[in-house]
Design a protein that fits this description.
- By secondary structure, the chain is α/β, with parallel strands linked by helices.
- Helix content is about 45%, strand content about 15%.
- A 7-stranded parallel beta sheet has the order 3-2-1-4-5-6-7, sandwiched between helices.
- α1 packs across α8 and α4 packs parallel to α5.
- It starts with 8 loop residues before the first strand and ends in a 9-residue tail after the last strand.
- About 45% of the residues are buried.
Length: about 270
């Protein structure tokens, strides 16, 4: 399927590793001029270089989006790279304390800054410019725990729930502008951090930690069960992002797409 993305310009926040990196590479493969963002310049440049080596066009913008001044710098560098932004993917985030009573009020505030305010900073910078051009895509990356929270990482879950909420509000605010705003809520996705967590749980349970295939199947049945029977891949999120970013998804707006193998016990 031709996504008609060639020549579009995208900023993917938090794209120097993990899910964001996969999104950046997938969009670049579709002909998108891609701005890689992160807080580690070396990692960001490595992703940029790989995209360029594979025939894509890419640049980097480095900085911490949880602070006004550095977020403004990131936005300016992203604008200068290719003369504008057509697609904004708000993937940067983080935080999350293990339990309610391990998390201080400062932890809660930090989770909100990293996951919500950082997203708002980028939206407030780029959405007006998209509105002027009459076309744009804003895709916010949330989490399955936004709609089905657990006792753990409550601060992170609440922040991601705010991201889902603000997506709907923003879609209404930008009505008739040519801009669509959607959320993707990943489930259990295989990243280095997730793999480390799975192997730790497996060791506690006495499972064979050397056989990833078995670990994945048991995880998808016994720890974070889903009816698909596997852990998600970063490419699963990247592929959905590419579609929502494309002109083909022009009638999808204000929606939250769960890419979780069916983990969340909800009809939506």
């Amino acid at each position: 399927m031709e996504l008609n993305l060639k020549g579009k310009r995208a900023l993917i926040t938090g794209s120097s590793s993990g899910i964001g990196e996969a999104i950046a590479k997938t969009l670049a493969a579709e002909g998108v001029f891609t701005i890689v963002h992160g807080r580690n310049e070396q990692r960001g440049r490595e992703v940029m270089d790989e995209i360029i080596q594979n025939g894509g066009k890419a640049a980097v913008a480095i900085g911490d989006l949880s602070k006004d001044e550095s977020a403004q710098k990131v936005a300016q560098e992203a604008m200068q790279a290719f003369g504008g932004i057509d697609i904004l993917v708000n993937n940067a985030g983080g935080g999350g304390s293990l339990s309610w009573f391990d998390a201080s009020t400062t932890d809660w505030a930090n989770a909100y800054q990293q996951n919500v305010i950082s997203t708002i900073r980028m939206i407030q910078h780029f959405a007006p410019l998209m509105k002027e051009s009459g076309w744009g895509r804003i895709i916010n990356i949330a989490s399955g725990v936004a709609t089905q929270p657990t006792t753990a990482i409550a601060d992170y879950a609440a922040a991601k729930a705010a991201v889902v909420n603000l997506t709907v509000s923003l879609a209404k605010e930008l009505a008739y502008s040519g801009i669509t705003v959607n959320t993707i809520s990943p489930g259990t996705i295989r990243t280095p951090g997730l793999e480390k967590a799975v192997r730790g749980i497996a060791a506690e349970q006495g499972w064979d930690t050397d056989d990833w295939s078995e670990l994945e199947q048991r995880t998808a049945r016994e720890i974070w069960p889903n009816p698909t029977g596997r852990i998600g891949r970063i490419e699963d999120i990247a592929n959905m992002t590419a579609y929502l970013a494309s002109p083909l998804a022009g009638f999808i707006n204000g929606a939250n797409y769960r890419v979780d193998g069916g983990n969340i016990a909800s009809i939506n």
